[in-house]
Amino acid sequence: MANFTKKAIEASFIKLLTERPLSQITVKDIVTDCGINRNTFYYYFEDIPKLIETVVEEDAAAIIQKYPTVDNFGDCLEAVLDSALSKKRAVLHIYHSINRDIYEMYLWKVCDYAIEAYLSTILRGRKINEIDLDIMKNYLSSLGFGMISNWLRNNMTDDIRTSLARLMDIKKGTLKEMIDRFEEA
User: What's the distance, CA 87 to chain centroid?
Assistant: First the structure.
């Protein structure tokens, strides 16, 4: 029953976020929509920012679970895009709120995971020192984060899938060259 109530609060919150900006949602709105009392809300969540954090963390965990290994960096970014598009208005309301940092932390977490999983797949059997590996991870995570952040900043109106596909085509071979240069003798 406890998990059901927590999920119901989260669902009500997402529903309300699709209807209006975050600044116009109160705990009272959530509990009224959900059919619970305020104390029940506070049993599960400290406040609305904690609720946001929980929702985006669970979304990140679902993407990470869906992609335990990443053979193609683009596939993992596609999962992020699909997730964001499935709740477009809610994501934009969070992104354009004072709580943007919570969504950005989620986005970094997923980008970092995708890059680490991807690199561990393509670097099997190759020896790269930790400093160079960190440089590669930071570069690729920043690339994914930057592309998605720019898309969010433009209210998800850009054709990001085409842009990402084109970027991957342009960058073909670049990563292999980086790995070859970084590989320890």
Answer: 12
Query: How many residues does the structure list for the chain?
Result: 185
pTM of the model: 0.78
Contacting residues for 110 by C-beta, under 8 A, at least 6 apart = 60, 63, 64, 76, 80
Phi, psi at 75, each rounded to 5°: -60, -40
Q: What is the pLDDT of residues 59-113, one digit of tens each?
A: 888 877 877 777 776 776 777 788 888 889 999 999 999 989 988 988 888 888 8
Q: What are phi and psi of 105, to 5 degrees?
A: -65, -40
Read off the pLDDT of residues 103-145 as tens digits, 9 standing for 90 and up: 898 888 888 888 888 888 878 878 888 888 888 889 888 888 8
Distance CA 185, CA 179 (A): 12
Report the distance separating Cα 144 and Cα 34, nearest Å.
36
